[in-house]
């Protein structure tokens, strides 16, 4: 029976990781799962630690969730790592996040290769420290021919920036005579986004309880199923991913139909 959305089915909540994994594998999978990885700061402060300690711990969750998503055969996983608004945080926190990324990205390359993960980044390249960008480019190139999970990291990403950038691209095409205004449609606009070629997310997960989108994939999530958990990102485990997917698999997606 279809469930009321927003409430994880009680019979799923009692299952362990292995049972959930088997269940997930026995039903059609979401092709694309997107995650707003939130709550690192609260995870740390609730333990009397500095907020940045939560970001370090969050990297471990990224590793285990990438592994878990690849193992069940999810095709696309998009992780929101740093928003266009996150520059407004204290400079110490911003620089810690940048150096954490710089360090982890190289360190993860062997595992990404071993699991045939294809890594890409969505977001504005301008404003990203040169060294971070250089390492990102290296990992993107090194993993370009991999055929397993497509891992997209939203970094220096804002959905409104993305839509503005897409409009600029289309406007240039119109101004230079390559495109008529009436030829602009959903497909063309979609192709001008950073996510060109990527199917829209089927499932969007947000950790740490906030019921908001925080400027994430606004165009692409028009018909995405939402799942919010109070669990903070550093505590998020493969079991939580499988729980979200199992819940998704019970949803009744109607796309406006009856
Ligand atoms: C998410 O955790 C990580 C980033 C936004 C980079 P937060 O740092 O937002 O943690 P909270 O939400 O303040 O607890
Ligand atoms: C969203 O989390 C951005 C990322 C997870 C990278 P925030 O913590 O920045 O969102 P708000 O400020 O609570 O909306
Ligand atoms: Mg937050």
Portion in beta strands: 5-15%
**Number of DSSP E strands:** 6
CATH classification, class level: Alpha Beta
Helix content: 40-55%
Tally of helical segments: 9
**CATH topology descriptor:** Undecaprenyl pyrophosphate synthetase
Apparent shape: globular
- Please, what is the average pLDDT? 96
* Number of separate domains: 1
The ligands bound in this entry are: 3-methylbut-3-enyl trihydrogen diphosphate, magnesium ion
CATH homologous superfamily assignment: Decaprenyl diphosphate synthase-like
- Rg computed from alpha carbons, rounded to a whole number of angstroms: 19 Å
The second-level CATH architecture is 3-Layer(aba) Sandwich
Q: What structural class is derived from the secondary structure elements?
A: alpha/beta
Widest sheet: strand ordering: 3-4-2-1-5-6
The biggest sheet amounts to:
6 strands, parallel
Termini separation (Å)? 15 Å
Structure explained in plain terms:
This protein has nine helices and six strands. α6 links the parallel β3 and β4. It is an alpha/beta fold and 258 residues long. It has a single domain, classed as Undecaprenyl pyrophosphate synthetase. α2 runs parallel beside α9 and α5 runs parallel beside α6. The model has no long low-confidence stretch (mean pLDDT 96). The protein is globular and about 60 Å long. The protein has a six-stranded parallel sheet with strand order 3-4-2-1-5-6, sandwiched between helices. The structure holds 3-methylbut-3-enyl trihydrogen diphosphate (2 copies) and magnesium ion (MG). The site of one 3-methylbut-3-enyl trihydrogen diphosphate has 11 residues, from β2.
């Amino acid at each position: 029976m279809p469930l009321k959305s927003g409430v994880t089915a009680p019979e799923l909540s009692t299952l362990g990781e292995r049972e959930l994994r088997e269940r997930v594998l026995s039903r059609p999978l979401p092709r694309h799962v997107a995650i707003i990885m939130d709550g690192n700061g609260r995870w740390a402060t609730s333990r009397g630690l500095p907020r940045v300690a939560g970001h370090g711990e969050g990297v471990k969750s990224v590793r285990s969730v990438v592994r878990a998503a690849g193992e069940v055969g999810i095709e696309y996983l998009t992780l929101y790592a740093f928003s266009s608004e996150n520059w407004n945080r204290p400079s110490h926190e911003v620089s810690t996040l940048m150096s954490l990324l710089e360090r982890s990205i190289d360190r993860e390359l062997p595992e990404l290769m071993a699991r045939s993960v294809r890594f890409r980044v969505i977001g504005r390249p301008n404003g990203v420290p040169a060294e971070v960008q250089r390492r990102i480019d290296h990992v993107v190139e090194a993993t370009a021919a991999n055929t397993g999970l497509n891992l997209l990291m939203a970094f220096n990403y804002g959905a409104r920036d993305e839509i503005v950038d897409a409009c600029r691209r289309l406007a240039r095409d119109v101004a230079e005579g390559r495109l008529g205004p009436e030829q602009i449609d959903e497909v063309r606009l979609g192709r001008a986004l950073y996510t060109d070629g990527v199917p829209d997310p089927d499932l969007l997960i947000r950790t740490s309880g906030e019921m908001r989108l925080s400027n994430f994939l606004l165009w692409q999530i028009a018909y995405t199923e939402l799942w919010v958990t109070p669990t903070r990102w550093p505590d998020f485990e493969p079991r939580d991913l499988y729980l979200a997917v199992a819940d998704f698999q019970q949803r009744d997606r109607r796309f406006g139909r009856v």
